[in-house]
Amino acid sequence: YEIGSGLVGSEMCIRDRKYIVSDKQFAAMLPVLLQHMHVDSYGKSTVSSIYFDTADMRLIRASIEHPIYKEKLRLRCYGTPSAESNAFIELKKKYKGVVYKRRIEMPYADAMEFLCGDAPCPDKQIAREIDYALRFYPELRPSFGIFCERTAYAENGVGDLRLTIDENQRYRTRSLDLLSGTYGDPILPAGKCIMELKTPHTLPLWLAALLDEHRIFPTSFSKYATAYNCLLYTSPSPRDRSLSR
User: Fold this and answer.
1) C-alpha angle with apex 159: 158 to 165, nearest 5 degrees?
2) Distance in angstroms (rounded) separating the CA atoms of residues 87 and 105
3) Dist. CA 119–CA 113, nearest whole Å
4) 212 Cβ contact list (under 8 Å, min separation 6)
5) Among 1, 200, 225, 237, which one is least packed by beta carbons within 10 Å?
């Protein structure tokens, strides 16, 4: 599966930095943050995702080993969708810290049929790349539902810095249909959230100083990997539970 093959059009190439912060830390940062950023047009929303993996959880097990290159396939909606709601199929690749995201949009029911059924591949470049991934990894199927409440911020003016804060992160491994709602078990302890910074450039000086002031340091964090580990360490029979539907 060649890195960079056919990566044209609506591909997004960014560097992301993730931080685990407490509610109190973020509240203390917010006054300065709002001098330079604003809540974007998406505002606060519930992010609902289904992650796809093989029967032996090949993708997430490989990701946990921190390889130079890794990829994930997910279906994302906002809130609890209906069959006609917009959904996004995303093929997310990460190579040497740079994220490449390929995404197509279609109604939720059509997306599920494409990913799980016998629907033909749409005649689009990105869809063909996703179809290749479906054929490259045998038995890809819904494996985890991941949910959170997200507030998104954008840099004032013409800057391209984006910041998201994800609260109440939760997961489930049964009823893997987003039509069923956004319930799930917690991924992080209460009072902890994930802050993610996305930019193709280095962080602005004001933000680097703000992070240093509040002693907030970058960390490697994946909602999917953390949920997978939660399942492994809380279940008396983790393999059976993780693979059961």
Assistant:
1) 130
2) 6
3) 6
4) none
5) 237
Handedness of CA 220, 29, 48, 11 (dihedral sign): negative
Distances (CA, A) of 232 to 41, 79, 228: 38, 27, 6
Q: Strand, helix or coil at 128? A: helix
CB atoms closer than 10 angstroms to residue 88: 17
Total number of residues shown for the chain: 245
Q: Could you read off the pLDDT of 64-117 as tens digits, one per residue?
A: 888 888 889 999 999 999 999 999 999 988 887 777 888 999 999 999 999 998
Assess contact for 74 and 222: CB atoms under 8 A.
Answer: no
* Half-sphere exposure of residue 2: CA atoms within 13 angstroms, side-chain side: 4
Q: Within 13 A of 174's CA, how many CA atoms are on the CB side?
A: 5
Q: What is the DSSP string of 109-125?
A: HHHHHHHHS-PPPPSSH
Q: Kindly report whether the global pTM for this prediction surpasses the value 0.90.
A: no
Q: φ and ψ at 106, to 5 degrees?
A: -160, 165
User: Is residue 18 classed as helix, strand or coil in its secondary structure?
Assistant: strand
